[in-house]
Amino acid sequence: MLKPIRWKTFPRDFLVIQFGFFLYGLALALLIRGDLGTSTWLVFEIALADIFKITIGRMTVFVGFTVLILALAMREKVGWGTLGNILSIGPWLDLCLWLIPSAKGTLVLQIVFFLAGILIQGLATAVYIGVDAGAGPRDSMMLAIHRVTGLSVRVARGILELVVVTIGWLLGGPLGVGTLVFAILIGPSVQWAFKLLNVTPHQPEPAALDATAD
Questions:
Q1: How far apart, in whole angstroms, are the C-alpha atoms of residue 192 and residue 202?
Q2: Alpha-carbon gap, residue 144 to 70, rounded angstroms
């Protein structure tokens, strides 16, 4: 299911959504450089990147396309922003990893990197979902679970993260104590960011609103 493109606001939407993708790549890089245990998806993606001998950013692209197929199977609406997510976050992540040094060996800085990564990822999610051009593949899965089951965004995200981290750990991904903390905190971070930026997923389409007005 494809969301229509709003051409009148497309230039502004493109800039806003790219800022969200940059924030997401920055958040992932901070989690990796914090070295306290990566995010749940990164446990999975780093394991696969090691297996296939490619950069982590490139692997996020491949995983993104796979998750997108699953979200489409659950009839979640996607749009140009979904494809932009898949193609943009990986390169931003690789760039940020190149720019940001490791904080390993300085516990206070590691904790700052880790908590900042969780906070920024929540904000990044709300920024690009707020553009309403289609959520990213992983967030599309989160929203699909939220819509199909009636679970809150927090619970839906938590379930998804726990399943993914288990698979990543079995594949040899870098599971750490921070990974468990991430799985617990990312749902509240996303939900808080939704409220902060007044973002409501699954907004009615403009055509539907016009019909109601008539």
A1: 17
A2: 10
Alpha helices in 54-106 (DSSP H): 56-73, 80-99
> Using CA atoms, how far apart are residues 64 and 200, in angstroms rounded to an integer?
23
CA 160 to chain CA centroid, nearest Å: 12
**Residue 45 · residue 59 · CB < 8 Å:** yes
Token pair of 41 as six digits: 């998806």
- The single-letter DSSP state of residue 175 is -
Question: How many helices (H) and strands (E) are present in the chain, helices listed first?
Answer: 9, 0
Structural contact between residues 46 and 35, judged by C-beta atoms closer than 8 angstroms: no
Identify the DSSP state of 135: -
Q: Residue 78, SS3? A: strand
pLDDT tens per residue across all 214 residues of the chain: 556 777 788 888 899 999 999 999 999 999 999 999 888 889 999 999 999 999 999 999 999 999 888 888 887 777 888 888 899 999 999 999 999 999 988 999 999 999 999 999 999 988 888 887 876 787 778 878 888 888 887 788 778 878 888 899 899 988 888 888 887 888 889 888 988 888 876 554 444 334 333 3
Q: Give 122's contacts (C-beta < 8 A, 6+ positions apart).
A: 186, 188, 189, 190, 192, 193
